[in-house]
Amino acid sequence: MTSPLNLLVIVGSVRDTRFAPTAAAWFAEQARHHPDFAVEVLDLLDYPLPLVLPAPGQDPDPGTTRVRDALGARLAAADAFVVVTPEYNHAPPAVLKNAIDWFNTEWNAKPVGFVSYGGAGAGLRAVEHLRHVFAELHAMTVRESLSFTNVWNVFQDGAPRDGEDSALAAKVMLDRLSWWGETLRSARAERPYQR
Predict the structure, then answer these.
(1) Which CATH number belongs to the domain containing residue 106 in this structure?
(2) Domain housing 85
């Protein structure tokens, strides 16, 4: 590997009582200990996109264009993604799906991992929805993920109570993201991805 992979950890919830920033901060810290990554956290709260996408050929208003271009630039610069998501009604949050839908080539031929959380379901149904969405965008989701059941009881002082077990699970997923990230980055450099 010639340079670290740019890993973007996406905070996928904007609710007032959201837990996503806590989970994202913990995971980003784990990723910063991995030698293969340069890590950034992206909070969708900072990129308010309308829920209505413009018609083909129609430009959005200037404010939306600025938000879209800023978010698009960060996505395009990433070599790999980790999406931190809760589960709302057996699906990912609308703001997360909306942010994904605003873009296309920015996701192409890049690996995606997941950190999910919730009650008894641990956010796993949201992740299964997202796997289908990212497949349509020609992204590669890794099999390994982290999921936290009854997350409010699992975390203490910003970290999982089980400490080493969660850290090990994070490392396994990061190792997979590293392999796919480097492989796909090299492939994109050698032959740009065509849809």
Answers:
(1) 3.40.50.360
(2) 5-190
